[in-house]
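Annex B. Sample input.
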Amino acid sequence: MPTSKKSKKKLKFRCDFSTTILDVLRDRGWWQVGEDDDNWDLFWCEVTQLKATLDNLRLNTHQRVPHFRNHYELTRKNLLARNLKRLKRLYIREGRLDDVELCDCMPLTYELPNEYLMFVEEYRKHPGATWIVKPALGSQGRGIFLFQRLKDLIDWRSSKETHASGSAPPAPGAGPLEGEQTQPDTYVVQRYIEKPYLLAGRKFDIRFYVLVTSFLPLKVWLAREGFARLSGYQFSLNTLSDNRIHVTNMAVQLRSMQKGSCPKDYKRSLRHLREFLTAQHGAEVVESLVQRIANIVLTSLHSVQQVIMQDRHCFELYGYDILLDADLRPWLLEVNASPSLSATDSEDYLLKYNLVADLLNILNLEGRLDGTERRVGGFDLLWNNGPVWKVFPGTTDCHEQPHPTVGSVNFSSPRLNVFLGCLNDRNAQLRLLQRAHNKQEMLRD
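Annex B, continued. Sample output.
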């Protein structure tokens, strides 16, 4: 990365994780301070520590924390569904019909218990359909189950209400998961995507990363790298009780692997997935898919933009989970406030190490950037108080189209600056940034 006079100052951090994050910070030469030391530049804390940090300390201008105070408006499934529905009503009133459809990016969702009667009315319109129940605030695939008979949901609900400790009963047809904790009282029930796109006959979802450095004005960066998470077994609706078939969460698959009952091919890089889809469907179809995914990201963020408490001290790295159906339509499953940055293998470690390193580059606490960058390492700027468009070779502006076809993709209209699954030549790009910024410093001197 570029160096500058400002970056010669050693920065201080607090970090409660012995993970990739700690490795990156130490490798950058930052100093780690104790938990009683408030003289830090970055405190990488859990969401549970955020309120105390923001309420009990008067932060200096340069101090940063990795969450927004009410991030849950985006990261709790029930609240995300509410916010998308509210945005849809606003777009309808404003006549923005092209944007209305993007607000339906989540599968049809009802909140339990508040919208139970509304769900029952919808259920009766679709006899034989498959539904999935998830905790509104949950992780690692716990508390999830599928059903087709309303009686299964009624029995589960009745059992839950009579459970003495207030925790959720096991899902119908399945025993409790290892290490399962008391579950929250709020759940969502969603229409299950019965015809997902399959890889080697198995269901998968896509995990990729979005960095928001500000909500007002909105500034969004999208990482190029991510991965597809595959379920452990061939997809089938004949067995609804086996979450290893239907839940692609890594924790579920890793538990199966530890027991020796799950294939090890449970993850593929986003670049591998993009190349596969391009070979199967063509570059134009895949580019349109990626553009739609980027629009889903922006729609979800716009849905919470006015309710998130903006704070200049806050930033957030979100883990987005997207499912593709058999028609290559992307569906937003959830947004994670604390995506795991612990590595499962050497390839995963490198991905997450570079992800955190580039996140820190963008935060610019070391004073290395000038703020005009459209790309930093493996991140591309997607929104900067307005859409950021792709600029093509031979052009100086995204609306210039001297070469309407790049490769086999026709760019007849502006495209969002998104490169999911594309080549991540981050080291070469960072060297270009370094040379450009070194030249600017020489001119200033």
